[in-house]
């Protein structure tokens, strides 16, 4: 969650850096930008790049010294004396015509430099975004459960498709959990295939005594987090598990033979133990 917050702060500030340089931000936003810049080396570097571009453009518009006509003629004579080919080139670019070409050349160089800086900054933003999206943040799902809201926010981040159990087996590369082995009291309500950075995982939604429980299964090595929630290590049915107790709901994660599991819901420890024992 902190990574996502930091990413969006970067995006919001970087869009306002030009206004910050020109002192056009409102006073409160300028103060916030100043505080963020003190602690963020990435944004400070981008600010320095923008200021460097401004200085180069200013130099291009108002050169400190203007070469004289005699200097240009001397340059043409020296370069044309090297070889016959350079002589012909010197004749083509006479002192009169070269005088009109030199500033467009400077402008082209400056444009190339600005484009290079812009592409570098965009590559950095894309790498941050890719890194963030490659990790599944189940903390978003847990937030929605705690506040008794729909899963829309989570599924906007990670697109989900409702499928049949047989289709789910074909969609993933690891063996599907034996969800049918759960007691009849765990009624399977829905199966979804989630996608994160090109990798697919499964979400089972079961109902027990009117209470919903969601069991996620993803491949070993899939980066994931549970956001800001602290987890404690505890053995359940001789399986090393991570337990998050968020008062309203609980979350238990453990590693199986070919995949990892994360179960969330308003269930008792005994009910969670039953799930771990059967699905391990």
What does this structure look like?
This protein has 280 residues and is α+β, with helices and mostly antiparallel strands. It has 2 domains: 2-133, no CATH class; 136-279, MucB/RseB, C-terminal domain (Phosphorylase Kinase, domain 1, 2-Layer Sandwich), CATH 3.30.200. It contains 10 helices and 10 strands. An 8-stranded antiparallel sheet has the order 2-3-4-5-10-9-8-7. A two-stranded parallel sheet has the order 1-6. Helix 1 (2-21) packs antiparallel against helix 6 (95-133), helix 3 (41-61) packs antiparallel against helix 6 and helix 4 (69-80) runs antiparallel to helix 5. The radius of gyration is 31 Å and the shape is elongated. The model is unreliable at 124-132 (pLDDT under 50).
């Amino acid at each position: 969650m902190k990574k996502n917050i930091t990413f969006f702060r970067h995006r919001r500030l970087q869009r306002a850096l030009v206004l910050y340089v020109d002192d056009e931000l409102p006073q409160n936003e300028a103060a916030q930008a100043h505080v963020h810049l003190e602690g963020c080396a990435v944004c400070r570097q981008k600010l320095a790049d923008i200021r460097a571009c401004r200085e180069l453009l200013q130099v291009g518009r108002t050169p400190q010294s203007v070469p004289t006509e005699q200097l240009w003629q001397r340059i043409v004579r020296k370069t044309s004396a090297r070889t016959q080919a350079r002589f012909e080139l010197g004749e083509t670019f006479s002192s009169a015509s070269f005088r009109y070409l030199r500033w467009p050349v400077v402008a082209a160089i400056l444009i190339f430099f600005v484009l290079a800086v812009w592409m570098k900054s965009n590559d950095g933003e894309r790498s941050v975004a890719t890194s963030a999206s490659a990790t599944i943040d189940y903390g978003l799902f847990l937030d929605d459960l705690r506040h008794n809201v729909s899963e829309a926010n989570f599924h906007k981040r990670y697109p989900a498709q409702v499928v049949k159990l047989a289709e789910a087996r074909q969609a993933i590369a690891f063996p599907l959990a034996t969800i049918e082995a759960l007691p009849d009291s765990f009624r399977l309500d829905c199966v979804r295939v989630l996608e994160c950075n090109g990798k697919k995982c499964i979400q089972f939604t079961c109902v027990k005594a009117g209470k919903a429980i969601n069991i996620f299964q993803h491949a070993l090595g899939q980066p994931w987090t549970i956001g800001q929630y602290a987890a404690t290590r505890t053995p359940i049915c001789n399986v090393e598990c991570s337990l998050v107790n968020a008062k309203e709901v609980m979350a238990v994660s453990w590693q199986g033979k070919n995949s990892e599991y994360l179960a969330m819901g308003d269930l008792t420890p005994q009910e969670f133990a039953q799930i771990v024992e059967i699905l391990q």
